Amino acid sequence: MRDLFAKARADQVFSGAAWSVGRSHGIVDRGVLGTLAWDGEPVTEDTLWDLASVTKPIFGLAVLRLIERGTLALSDPVEKWLPDYAGTDKARLTVEQLLCHTSGMPGRVPLYRDHPTRQGLLDAVRELPLHSPPGTNVEYSSQGFMILGQLAEAAAGQPLDQLIAKPRMGELGFNPTDAARCAATEQCRWRGRLVQGTVHDENADVLGGIAPHAGLFSTLDALEDLAHSLLSNDGSFLKPGTLNEMTKPRTDHLESRRTLAWQGAPTGDRLSKAAYGHTGFTGTSLWIDPEQDIFLVLLTNRVHPRREGPAGIARVRRAFHAEALAG
């Protein structure tokens, strides 16, 4: 496995990486490689990685806990918890549609360019027009998760960071206090500096680094522990039946597999149809395959020092999965 990642680093896909492969009985292979930045200190076991959109399913676990307790329901409309949305085209969007990316909300909208404050950006989310009628199409939408984050906070009566926090999360949280331990991401023109120790996603940055769509940082250990708990379905985060319900495919009729906050394995990958996981723009990924009894964690900084097409990390991820599943 190390040779695979050493070659990817030599090809400048990333400056650093950490990985873990495990089964229900324990860890099969894990390691760290490279440097925090191209001219930086070595990656260590304690390195913190910007998870980017891997934040979404971890936030999703918190939403499902609220559903498990009866605080929320999948059928709850946005307007029930966010009165400001009443009378808008988003009033009747449901928790389920937002989790599955079938709300019709547009995705990847650079609102930060025109809305430099938290409240201004959230107001702009409310004004975005829907791209399609709810329930008719899968469109990956960080903006939909921004609505869901506000909804969950209102229902729980807790801010997002407290809502997500669990005793077993370890070093997995928002706004790390030690930037020197973080893998660097982009030399950002908008911010005019190298991003290290603050969230890479610009919209999440405007939201104060605490957002439901991006912003979590994690060590390898912390994400590995989460992955093992999910694979074992041990009840640490959700009751076994709730996790099964969360990871059940819901959008196959729309030709794009989504569960509640997770995505299905990409075409051409060697994961089974039972697999669920998520990728992050910074070069991270977390995949669980109950059928093949395996989890795969990959943490990289593939956007350092510049964001370019994801083809390089996609190839590395496929090779990583293939090698792990062949072992």
UniProtKB/TrEMBL annotation:
Domain of life, source organism: Bacteria
Keyword rRNA-binding applies: no
Any one GO MF annotation of this record: hydrolase activity
Record carries keyword Hydrolase: yes
Chain ranges of the Beta-lactamase-related domain: 2-315
Pfam family, one: Beta-lactamase
Enzyme class: hydrolase
Key words, A-Z: Hydrolase
Enzyme Commission code(s) on record: 3.-.-.-
Name the UniProt record assigns to this protein: Serine hydrolase domain-containing protein
Originating species: Tenggerimyces flavus
Lineage: Bacteria, Bacillati, Actinomycetota, Actinomycetes, Propionibacteriales
